[in-house]
Amino acid sequence: MLTEGDSSHHISDTTHYCITPRQAPPCTIRAMTHFDVPDVHALHRECFPVEYTAAFIASLVDRKKGVALVGVSAEGNIIGVASGWAVKSAAYICTVGVTSSFRRQGIASSLLESIIRIFEDRGSTSVFLHMKVGNDAALAFYKRLGFSVECPLPQHYSIGGMTYDGLQIRRALNPPTSFLWSLFTCDYLVDCFRRLIGYPRKKVK
Predict the structure, then answer these.
(1) Of 24, 78, 100, 167, whose CA is between 20 and 30 Å from 48?
(2) CATH number assigned to the domain with residue range 2-196, chosen from the 4 options 3.40.1390.10, 3.40.630.30, 3.90.550.10, 3.40.50.720
């Protein structure tokens, strides 16, 4: 989920990366730490309609095969975040967000490219993420960065007591996989994600 204008590896493993985005944003990108959790939690509340608990955000720091990056302003404030984790040979991008006063300055794209680069270095062959249907600005943003729509996610989001359809979009990091493999990874990753957050399985009649 994006807001920009509208774990055999722990996160500490990313501290050795010297992240140099193609176009330097007005911030420093580094690994998130436990000390950052309150600020990152506040940023999530600002950026996303889906509620993320402080405990969930803290878990991103220690998640097996996970990565969480923050963008830090010259004044030392956390102004952006990107998080995700590997699922077998793919990587799931959980959140990408930037505080309102720093949007449209290339920070979201720099955070996204930085986390993708780390997953690619660790052997991921593709990256996936979920987004709400109707967020055309976000979809255009992701398409500019090489993502394409892979499959629909009916009634994927529950926001304010309402359900909303989602999309799974994907970017290949190596030669494209087969159509059958794309179908498999879509269902597999959605199931993994829902089990992770405790989403109830649909009852089979």
Answers:
(1) 24
(2) 3.40.630.30
Taken in order 64, 126, 170, 141, the sign of the CA dihedral is positive
Say how far apart CA 174 and CA 53 lie, in whole Å.
34
**Cα separation, 86 vs 38, whole angstroms:** 24
Cα separation of 67 and 55, whole Å?
A: 16
Listed in order, strand segments (DSSP E) in the chain are: 2-3, 28-31, 66-72, 78-87, 90-98, 126-132, 148-159, 162-172
Mean pLDDT by 10 residues, the chain (205 residues): 37 38 71 96 92 92 90 95 92 94 92 95 93 92 94 90 93 67 58 60 43
Domain extents in the chain? 2-196
User: For residues 189 and 182, is the Cβ–Cβ distance under 8 A?
Assistant: no
Instruction: Give, as one character, the DSSP assignment of residue 160.
Output: T
Residue 28: both structure tokens together: 């420093």
